Amino acid sequence: MKKIYLLILMLFISLNAEVLDGKKVFETYCWGCHHQTAVAFGPPFSEIASKRTKEEIEAYIIDPKAMYKAFGYKRTVMTELKLNDNEREAIAKYVLSYKGK
Fold first, then answer.
1. What is the C-alpha to C-alpha distance for residues 75 and 39, in angstroms, rounded to an integer?
2. Is residue 99 a contact partner of residue 46, using CB atoms and an 8 Å limit?
3. pLDDT value at position 8?
4. 8 Å CB contact between 49 and 22
5. How many Cα atoms occupy the beta-carbon half-sphere of 98 within 13 Å?
6. CA pair distance 68, 61, nearest whole angstrom
7. In sequence order, what are the residues at sequence separation of 6 or more whose Cβ sits closer than 8 angstroms to the Cβ of residue 53?
8. N or C: which end of the chain has fewer CB within 10 A?
9. Terminal-to-terminal C-alpha distance of the chain
């Protein structure tokens, strides 16, 4: 029983750490224009998460100029960020954690 409890605790910690990494990337690169659930210069993560897949979010981060046209946006595009694969994946997962909020 004790092993099961430890396994569940370790799983919870690892899942929570994944979201915390995304939050750190958000605070470093995205917070100036995006907020989790409120409109700022860019749309809130809750809105993005309701419309986009993980792959679409990562593609937008990689090449916002190409993707804004594909998504049908009419406003100025997001600044191009030089994030590595792990940072893009972490922020995409963090954004998607707001789906339904």
1. 15
2. yes
3. 52
4. no
5. 21
6. 10
7. none
8. N
9. 35
Query: What is the number of other CB atoms lying within 10 angstroms of the CB of residue 4?
Result: 8
Encode pLDDT of 4-35 as tens digits: 644 454 544 454 444 558 999 999 999 989 98
Distance CA(45)–CA(34), nearest Å, equals 7
In contact, 99 and 51? CB cutoff 8 Å:
no
Which amino acid appears at position 72 of this protein? G
The string of pLDDT tens digits covering residues 44-87 is 999 999 999 999 999 999 999 888 888 888 877 788 889 999 99
- Name the token pair of 79: 């600044």
pTM of the full structure: 0.74
* Measured distance CA(36)–CA(26) in Å, rounded: 9
Residue corresponding to tokens 């804004």? 68
Nearest to 33 by CA among 78, 80, 75: 78
19 HSE (CA, 13 A, CB side): 10
